[in-house]
Design a protein that fits this description.
- By secondary structure, this protein is mainly α.
- The protein has helices spanning 13-20, 24-33, 51-66, 71-81, 83-87, 107-135; strands spanning 11-12, 40-41, 47-49.
- It has two domains: 1-97, Multidrug-efflux Transporter Regulator, Chain: A, Domain 2; 104-136.
- Helices cover 58% and strands 5% of the residues.
Length: 136
């Protein structure tokens, strides 16, 4: 099940595996072989891949599957040429940049943001009330 996420969104190991057409155990194995892959791990060891991690894994997959390199060969390439040179300028870029020029936000986007802020404030108030009841 592919979900359209923003470019800046973190992805689960299952999402990355599906996107790249590899098994999740392959991604976990690559993590042991390539120190450049550093997904964030949350409760229970659940992995969340940052956009940079996804680009690195995509590059590794390309060299291993498409160009038929060995793992040692890709490690050597990363060491000699550097990850940024192989992956491209996408790596370590600010993925939170907006595509709108000079931070201009249209009225519908502004209205959506204000609505979301109000919803978050309401949820915070509900949580505070619930916590107050629990603490009694």
């Amino acid at each position: 099940m592919v979900v359209n996420k923003s470019k800046a969104a973190f992805r689960t190991i299952a999402e990355v595996a599906e996107e790249l057409g590899v098994a999740t155990h392959v991604l976990r194995f690559w993590e042991t072989k390539f120190s450049q892959i550093k997904p964030m791990k949350r409760n229970g060891g659940r992995r969340y891949y940052r956009p940079d991690d996804v680009e690195i894994v995509r590059t590794i997959r390309h060299f291993l599957y498409d160009k038929r390199y060995t793992i040692e060969g890709v490690q050597k390439l990363f060491k000699e040429k550097g990850v940024k040179n192989l992956v491209g300028e996408e790596i370590q870029k600010d993925f939170f940049e907006e595509s709108l020029p000079n931070g201009v936000i249209d009225e519908s986007s502004r209205a959506l943001i204000i609505s979301l802020q109000e919803q978050l404030k309401a949820m915070k108030a509900e949580l505070n009330a619930a916590m107050a009841k629990v603490e009694k």
